[in-house]
Amino acid sequence: EPKKRGEERRGEERRGEERREKGREEKRREEKRREEKRREEKRREEKRREEKRREEKRRQDKTRQDKTRQDKTRQDKTRQDKTRQDKTRQDKTRQDKTRQD
């Protein structure tokens, strides 16, 4: 009878230890899952930041191109105006000269 009780106690202790080990394993798995989630979130965050940087660069490039285009248009217009004024001046000079003759 006492021998049986000792075996039962050892069996209960073993089962208790198995339950505790199972609990510890579950905690380790849970921690691994949380760690993986954190890493995944970090990757997503880095991707978002990278995309923002690319978008900002595209925006700056577009602004720069637009400014260059505007400058070129302004220069062309100035050149045309100057040419028109020169032509008008030459025509006027030619007319004045013709009148004098």
Descriptive account of the structure:
Residues 1-101 are annotated as: Disordered. By secondary structure, the chain is mainly α. It has one helix and no strands. The protein has one helix spanning 2-100.
Q: In brief, what are we looking at here?
A:
With 101 residues, the protein is mainly α.
H/E topology pattern = H
Using only C-alpha atoms, the radius of gyration works out to 43 Å
For the record, give the distance between the C-alpha atoms at the N and C termini, rounded to a whole number. Answer: 149 Å
Mean pLDDT: 91
- Biggest sheet statistics: none
Overall, the morphology is rod-shaped
Q: From the helix content, strand content and strand pairing, which structural class follows?
A: mainly alpha
Portion of residues in beta strands equals under 5%
- How much helix is in the residues? over 70%
Region (Disordered): 1-101
Using brief descriptors, characterize the structure shown:
single chain, 101 residues, mainly alpha, rod-shaped
Topology:
Elements: H1 2-100
